[in-house]
Amino acid sequence: MMDDPIADLLGKIAAQDxxxxxxxxxxxxxxxxxxxxxxxxxRAEAEDALQEVFTRVWLRANRYEADKGRGMxxxxxxxxxxxxxxxxxxxxxxxxxEDAMNAVIDTTPRAENRLIAVGEAxxxxxxxxxxEVEKAAALRGAYLTGTSYIDLAAQFDxxxxxxxxxxxxxxxxxxxxxxQ
Amino acid sequence: MTxxxxxxxxxxxxxxxxxxxxxxxxxxxxxxxxxxxxxxxxAALVNDWQxxxxxxxxxxxEAPAPNLLPQIEARLFPQATAxxxxxxxxxxxxxxxxxxxxxxFMMLPPPAPPAPTMTAEMSAEASPLRYTAAIAGDQLTLTxxxxxxxxxxxxxxxxxxxxxxxxxxxxxxxxxxVTIPAPKAAAGYVLAITLEPKGGGxxxxxxxxxxxAGPLAEI
Lengths: 180, 219
What we know:
The structure holds two protein chains of two kinds.
Chain A: H1 5-14, H2 18-40, H3 43-60, H4 71-91, H5 98-102, H6 118-128, H7 133-145, H8 149-156, H9 160-179
Chain B: H1 11-21, H2 26-38, H3 40-52, H4 69-76, H5 84-91, H6 97-101, E1 118-123, E2 130-136, E3 139-146, E4 154-161, E5 168-173, E6 177-181, E7 190-197, E8 210-215, E9 217-218
Antiparallel strand pairs in B: 1-2, 1-9, 2-3, 3-6, 4-5, 4-7, 7-8
Helix pairs in contact in B: 1-3, 2-3
C-alpha cells in the first residue's frame, strides 16, 4: 500500500483532531484552490467555496474510507462537487456564458501531482489516446471545468443527446481500455 | 480495431460516470446526490468512477490559497474556549447525554441516537448571537454558541422558512440550548430567530428583527 498522508490526516480529523485539520489545510488548500478557481473562474467565489469545502472536510471526514480511494481523490471530489453545484446554480439563472464555453477545450499543461504514482497517471492518458481527439478533449475539458451537457452541445454544435451519447461511449471506451 | 466494445454503459453506471464527470444539470445532479445517500450500489459506481478519472486531477494546477483557517475555524469551533466539545460531539455522530441533558423541553433520547443529517449555522449582521442547529432523526437541537438571553420583556422565537413561504414558528426559546421535535425540513430551508415580545410574535407571525439565521444543509 502506498503512503497516503492525506488519508492519515482524514482519519485523525474524523476523530476531531484539530491539529490534523490545520495540517490538511496547509497540505491541500493550494490544490483545492486550483480546482475551485478552474471551475468557478473567479477568485472571490473560489475563496468562499474553499471555506465551505474545508468546513465540509471537518464535518464529513468520518465518511472517508481509506480502502475506497486516496485521500486527495476524496478531497478533490468534495471540492469539484461543491464547485459544480455552485456553477449549475449560477448558470441556470443566467444566459450562456461565452467565457466558460470557450474554456471547455483544455490546453493547460499538466501539473505534476506527487501524490499519484506515475504509472497510474500514464494509464489514463494512454487510454485518452485511444479516443478521437475531439472527444478526448471534450471529456477532459468537461471534467476539469465542470461543463454541462447543454454547454458542451452548444460548443460542439450538436444536439444535447448526441453529445451525451458521444461522451457516454467515450467513457465506456476509457473504462475498457483501463481495465485491459 | 482490435476489439469490439460493448455498445453502451448500463444506465446506472453511465449516470454515475456523468455525475463524476460533472456534465449533469442541476436537477440531475440533485437526483444523483440524493440517490448516492440511499443507494450503496450506486455510491460504489460513483466511487469507482471517481478513482478511474482521478488521474485527470493532475491537470489542476495548484493556486496560492490565502490562509482562510481563522474564518473556517471560527465557523466550525465558535468560541473555542467555551464548551466546543459539546457541539463537536454531535458532529462526530453521537449526541452526548450532556448535550441532551441541558435541553429545556427535551424528549427522551432513543437508546442509540441517530447521527445528525442536517445542520445550520445561524448568525446575522450586527448581532452577537450565534447558534448551531442540527437535525438528527426526529429531533432538532439548537445550541447558542455566542450571545446572551433576550432583554427583559422579550423572547427569542425560532422559525423555519421554506422558500418564499411564510415562516412557521417552532416556539419561543426558553434557554440557550433546546431540543425539540424536528419540523418538516429539507436542505435549503432557513432557520431564523427573531426578537419578539414576551411569549412570541402575536398572531404567530414574526414582528421583530432577525437576530440569527442560516440555511439547513445536509451533512
